[in-house]
Design brief:
alpha/beta; TIM Barrel; 12-stranded mixed beta sheet; two-stranded antiparallel ribbon; 11 helices; 14 strands; binds S-adenosylmethionine; binds iron/sulfur cluster
């Protein structure tokens, strides 16, 4: 098992396969001024499989495919199959906005994907278009249904809570867990991008405690569920009589850095050591200079040793990349 310089076991790799997206969520992608990676800069499916083999050889046990929007990648099934071949018994999840899942859920399951997290900020048809610009509630719901039918379960739903945009919608989303076996998770907005943008985002953070209180006021007590893994970033609860769970991810009000078990691979092959800082290592350079599994595995281990102890949002330090370039 790879350990970082602070003794944490790092066995979870989040792989961004695409920096483009079919949506423009307000806190993730502006409507204008975006620059995307040229196709030749993206890791190919074979290169991603090579990183996965290197990671498995180091002791990584968990992978998550993300983006941008991973379902926009034409060879996504091949990407999944390559990771699965690298680790027949590892866990492979995918985070998606779900819009394109109906046409590919089954193929992805057959290629070796275990489960999906679907991003849905509100169940309100109008507000969803305001927060997750270009989103279509019916299509996302069809994506969730397709994932369920394909067995990409248990399904988690991710909602980023933004003050003044969807902060009252937590109640309706949480209500779904009474009748659906979903893990609905509310994520505190994280400041990304340049200084002004990050400052504006910080002013729109809704602390998890506030969302919890809204849910309790409307739906009754949230009963705590003990964490299965210390590295679970979500604090989980259950409404009385519910079949699903409600979780809160609180990177701003209650950072989980001390239990962090993950690193991230960007679509262009940079190993990102912390979601909210810029520390990185260039794995694509190792691969494209002829490095094989051993060389990539060595580069991975060396980089992990340099993983920062935690984020430093309170010192005004945040990642200069946007979330769609990192993968969340
Ligand atoms: N497009 C996919 C999606 O939306 O799920 C995968 C990529 S997206 C960058 C991954 C996750 O990042 C999303 O589920 C969203 O919840 C989260 N996210 C994006 N921007 C965020 C921000 N500024 N703060 C907190 N979470 C954010
Ligand atoms: Fe696209 Fe996901 Fe970013 Fe929304 S959060 S713009 S769906 S990458």
């Amino acid at each position: 098992m790879p350990r970082d310089g602070h003794g944490r076991i790092i066995d979870y790799l989040r792989i961004s396969v695409m920096d483009r997206c079919n949506l423009r969520c307000t806190y993730c992608m502006p409507l204008e001024g975006l620059r995307f990676l040229p196709e030749e800069n993206l890791l190919t499916a074979d290169e991603i499989a090579l990183v996965a083999r290197a990671a498995v050889s180091c002791g990584f046990r968990k992978f998550r495919i993300t983006g941008g929007e991973p379902t926009l990648r034409r060879d996504l099934v091949e990407v999944v199959a390559g990771i699965r071949a690298a680790g027949p018994d590892v866990e492979i999840g995918m985070t998606t906005n779900g819009m394109l899942l109906p046409r590919m859920a089954k193929e992805l399951k057959d290629a070796g994907l275990d489960r999906v997290n679907v991003h849905i900020d509100t169940l309100d048809e109008v507000r969803i278009r305001q927060v997750m610009r270009f989103a279509d509630l019916q299509k996302i719901m069809a994506g969730i249904d397709a994932a369920e039918a394909a067995g990409l379960t248990p399904i988690k739903l991710n909602s980023v809570v933004v003050r003044g945009e969807n902060d009252t919608d937590v109640v309706e989303l949480a209500r779904q867990t009474l009748t659906r076996p979903w893990g609905v998770r509310f994520i505190e907005l994280m400041p990304m991008g340049d200084g002004e943008e990050a400052k504006l985002a910080l002013s729109k953070v809704v602390p998890s405690q506030e969302s919890m209180e809204k849910i309790i006021d409307s739906l009754g007590p949230l009963n705590p569920i003990p964490a299965v893994h210390a590295s679970d970033e979500s604090r989980n609860y259950q409404l009385s009589g519910a079949i699903g769970t409600v979780g809160f991810i609180s990177p701003v009000s209650d950072p989980f850095c001390s239990a962090c078990n993950r690193v991230r691979l960007s679509a262009e092959g940079k190993l990102l050591l912390c979601l909210l800082r810029d520390d990185e290592a260039d794995l694509r350079a190792v691969i494209r200079s002829g490095g094989g599994v051993d060389a990539v595995s060595r580069a991975l281990r060396e980089a992990i040793l340099l993983k920062p102890v935690g984020h430093a949002l309170d010192e005004g330090i945040h990642a200069s990349r946007r979330m769609h370039e990192i993968g969340g």
